[in-house]
Predict the structure.
Amino acid sequence: MNFLQRAIKNVTRKLSKSVLLLLTFFVIGNFVIVGLGVSQASENAKTMTRQKMRAVVTYEVDYDAINEYINSLTDQDAIDEFYSNGYPSIKISDVRPLLEDERVLTANALVHSQLYAASGNDFVHLGNQVEEEFVNNEMCYIDADGNEVCEPYSQPSYFLKANYFPNMIEFQDGSYKVVDGRFYTQEDIDNNANVVLVSQALADVNGWQVGDVIDVFTLDPLSYNDPSSYMYGIGLTEEDVKMSLEIIGIYTHNQAITPSSDNFDWTYPYENPDNMLLMPATSYMNFSLAQAQKSYDYYAQQYPDDPYYSDPANYPSIENTSYISNATILLSDPLDVDGYVADYSGDIPEFMMINANNEEFERLSKPLDTIGLFANFIVWLVVINAVVIITLVTALTLKTREYEIGVLLSIGANKLKIIGQFFVELAIVAVIGFTLSIFSGSLIAGKVGEVVLDYQITESGVDQESDDFIGNDYISIWDNDYTTDITLDDLVGEYNVSISPLIIAEIYIVGLGIVLVSTFIPSMMIMRFNPKKILMNQN
């Protein structure tokens, strides 16, 4: 009779012992299934929510690190020296290496500005209260003598978004779409090409087409032509404030403002996304340089003794006038965000940081993290206790079977086959117990998961959100935050405790692992003796 047959006979012959072991494995299985199910549900909810978020990281100044460093300085001279060397700022040259990673799709390093329409050109009208009350109005102020002075003043007509890179996140993710022409290239950026993209709505209002050249002003034409204005005083001419741009592309967008939109009545013409122009940032900054230099020259003459204007290093140049608040990098997969941040955070300049923008996600994920932690703890606690208990039971059982072991060894039975017999005996009972626990555990896990989640949400307080004073459909052209807003409902909606085939496989692997350890340890205690000694001890 081989060891498999002996194992089956022993299981059926000692039925009461087998039933007790089966119940033990059944209880263990239920605990393990609930723990693994809840843990997997927590991780899946976080993963699925993360996959719905925009895969962006932000390269920005680490103001917390700067403040911490300054506060650590006790010498005022050292503090003054830090500020005299220039406040840390973002350099495009530092951003470019971050874009060479294959996980990167594109990046936005934007320069913003308000622009004025040339005579004969129009903007897309909203017909709201702002247009009725403030467009082409006067700007009044009180001068040094206490007199009210009113000057002609025009509201900006257009808004400029200029990128340092030959693509934009909006086009990559489908928010914007080129419907005619093209986007500007790296060659356009390198050559400071005076090219622009306009919205379809703006092109329709003015009858513009790809290839047309349009004029826009960086300053209010009514102010730089007014002899009493500051702009006139520093010597700015039309050549300094007028940009002639060739339309190379026409695009559409999904940010239309309607009368039902929040803040509709107080949306200025330049705040309407239909009135947005897109061009290379290098082109705009190169054009703005002349204005900055004329302003510098004017003030240098007015204040010849000022140390700032006597230092040649402060003379406006592309290097010291080009400024961006941050660079937003779009990755191909939201699940790559944490890995990307970890890979590059150590290679960036001091006082800079790569921000994964995870604060809100991590805050809302705390209940799930806690649930997952405790679920895994329960699984390990149950497994360890199961090993201890089953090992003790097996050791006591094998102690009563020493005579059987001695006889088998005396007739030449292989020790491994004897251990295999004991393993099979326990494995048969364990498989039946764990199989039964799958059905009951599946029912219990869902209910337990819901109760535990509700408790953790209440205890953590993440459901107590602050009031939102800005409507969800509010559109801000100044907004460079490309992160995805998530809510607690988004996370909870993905939380679903179910017993997958993977968990079932893990149950059997864990169960057989418990059986193997619980069989091997006590078997070795007996197998170290030879058959003669075992039989003599029995006598």
Q: What stands out?
A: The longest strand covers residues 242-253. The mean pLDDT is 80.
